Amino acid sequence: MNRPPAQLRLARIRELVTSATPIRQIATDRAGLHIEIDGMDAADAESISTVFQSCPASNRELLLKHVEIPVDLIRMIDAAAKLDRRRRIEIERLQMELEARGGRPAKNYSAECAMKCSEPAFKAFMEARHALARPLTDDRVAARVRSVLAISSRTELNTSSEAAARWREMVKNFDVWRKR
Fold first, then answer.
1. Which residues pair with 47 in a beta bridge?
2. Is the distance from CB of 110 to CB of 155 less than 8 angstroms?
3. 137-167 pLDDT tens trace
4. pLDDT of 3-50, one tens digit each?
5. d(CA 68, CA 75)
6. DSSP 8-state code for residue 22
7. How many CA atoms lie within 13 A of 173 on its CB side?
């Protein structure tokens, strides 16, 4: 059984939780607890569930907090995602700072370059800005990139801060070119 991706499942849960009618009250009698919501007439309550006295306490609590628990979990997920974004930005900033001081490159520029060389937009950029001759194959793009950056291998992008700086400049120029 294939499950939808986590982001889609979370979006569906979010939608379900926000569309749930809040509990108006919990009534009790000898049979058990009755979970009530507003009825058709706002003055009337409508029982949507009865939790019998024989229901174990932990199950009863889960049933009574059926909306609050997922809301809290969604808030925690959102807070963790926000914290994760901030940490990733800070890590990238620190890596760039280290690279600027002559340390190891902040990214795997060699892998980034390999991926860019297969993108149709990057191929068009290389043709327009760096006189890449047709056909625009991945190998021809990679060879032209090496030539323009004055490197013999893409691995130099990860071992030479000067080569990495030239690559970053090429990527910036590509981004500007693509936005036009």
1. 36
2. yes
3. 999 999 999 999 999 999 999 888 889 889 9
4. 788 889 999 999 998 888 888 888 889 888 998 888 877 778 888 889
5. 11
6. P
7. 12
Segments in 20-160 forming alpha helices (H): 57-64, 68-100, 109-116, 120-130, 138-149, 156-159
Size of the chain, expressed as the number of residues it contains: 180
How far CA 141 is from CA of 128, 138, 156, 161, 175, in Å, comes to 12, 5, 17, 22, 17
Cβ-contact 168, 146 below 8 angstroms? no
What is the number of other CB atoms lying within 10 angstroms of the CB of residue 77?
14
Nearest to 52 by CA among 34, 26, 65, 25: 34
How far is it, in rounded angstroms, from Cα 109 to Cα 117? 12
The DSSP bridge pattern shows strands 45-52 and 25-28 to be unpaired
The predicted model scores a pTM of 0.51
What element of type H or E holds 6?
helix 6-19
End-to-end CA distance of the chain: 45
